[in-house]
Design a protein that fits this description.
single chain; 246 residues; Jelly Rolls; Arc Repressor Mutant, subunit A; 2 domains; four-stranded antiparallel sheet
Length: 246
């Protein structure tokens, strides 16, 4: 039987994906560990299987067996579900570095969401069995994964609490703060790039698109934000934080 050979296009794509693997600083951002050592980053690069995906491609699908942990290295992706009409309903918008699924593979389970690329992205997968063996010999790496899982639990707990206890304006203000980028030399200001459709943002906040439109107009009238196309200019972060607190 003839040996199977990679096509030049496949080899080029794999090489480009591997070239995009994080350095120690970028791995540190993913693991919430700024002091990640170069040796640990090298180990992660050896274990990581990189993939490049184009906008609209599915990273994984709900119900698929999960044998690997999946992290978003760079770009924007969404976790959600495909409905009966094959329309993607966003539940969480993530910007790399971030984890798309850091738990299912440890449980020998299946992915709980659909994950979809919103733009060209790079993801990495870690085979759970290989990673587990590496962690047995590298306790520091095991502790960092505990931090990752603890951070995921905290984020989900906060999201659930917000949906249960905060009103719509507070949830919208909190969403803006979570996605706000700093503006140099202007600590009270910020920028939020709306990479999602309005209905997808509304879905994350458990409100209707019409309610979101009213909230945007209300925040603008209060002088908290200014909307220009797909960019939200935050004018008063202190006021925004007060609104997020309910």
């Amino acid at each position: 039987m003839a040996a199977c050979r990679e096509s030049p296009a496949s080899s080029t794509a794999d090489a480009a994906a591997r070239a995009a693997l994080p350095d120690a600083r970028a791995w540190g951002a993913l693991f919430a560990e700024p002091a990640l050592q170069a040796g640990q980053a090298q180990l992660l690069n050896q274990l990581a299987r990189p993939r490049r995906l184009s906008a609209g491609e599915m990273v994984f699908r709900q119900g698929e067996p999960a044998s690997a942990l999946v992290a978003l290295v760079q770009g924007d992706a969404a976790l959600g579900r495909l409905d009966a009409q094959a329309q993607f309903r966003t539940e969480r918008h993530l910007r790399g570095p971030a984890w798309l699924d850091a738990s299912a593979a440890w449980l020998g389970g299946r992915h709980a969401h659909d994950a979809r690329a919103l733009a060209a992205i790079t993801v990495v997968e870690f085979d759970a069995e290989a990673l587990g063996k590496a962690m047995e010999h590298t306790p520091a790496l095991a502790r960092q994964f505990v931090r990752v899982l603890a951070g995921e639990v905290r984020a989900l707990t906060r999201h659930a609490q917000a949906l249960m206890h905060l009103d719509a304006p507070a949830r919208w203000a909190g969403w803006l703060l979570a996605h706000c980028q700093d503006v140099p030399d202007a600590p009270q200001r910020g920028l939020v790039q709306l990479a999602l459709r309005k209905r997808d943002i509304a879905s994350q906040l458990a409100i209707t698109p019409e309610t979101l439109s009213r909230l945007m107009r209300s925040f603008s009238a209060q002088g908290v934000i200014e909307v220009s196309g797909y960019t939200v200019h935050v004018l008063d972060r202190t006021r925004l934080a007060a609104l997020a607190a309910g």
